[in-house]
Amino acid sequence: MDSEEGEFVVYGDCGSAEDAQFDQLVGAIEDFMVNLDQDAMLAKLPPFFSVSDEHERHKIHRELLKRVDADLDEHVLKNCQSIGSMENAVRILESRKEEISEDVLDFVSDGFLDYNIFVEAWEKRDQ
Length: 127
Prior knowledge:
This protein is mainly alpha-helical and 127 residues long. Helix content is 64%, strand content 3%.
């Protein structure tokens, strides 16, 4: 590798195949998170004030989370082909939970958007 100080070589153990899978998986999730376009998702929703029922707003939020989860699954499987299935991905993540950043862990555990933040952003979009 080259740097401002000159060329250098990295030596050492690159880890196991499971280490590589874990790194690839977390990297794919981080890539998905960075590229997630919340504004584009909100733009597809009906006008906020046209949905006055709180139950319907919760339903729209759940549907949005399901879509994001499905898109994340697709992204992970496309970019981490050695993992093979989402069941394997979940197993890998759970086995190394303590090594995952809080942001990534929250994203995969709780969803990308809290309901109250979702409603606030949706309402603000229409103002």
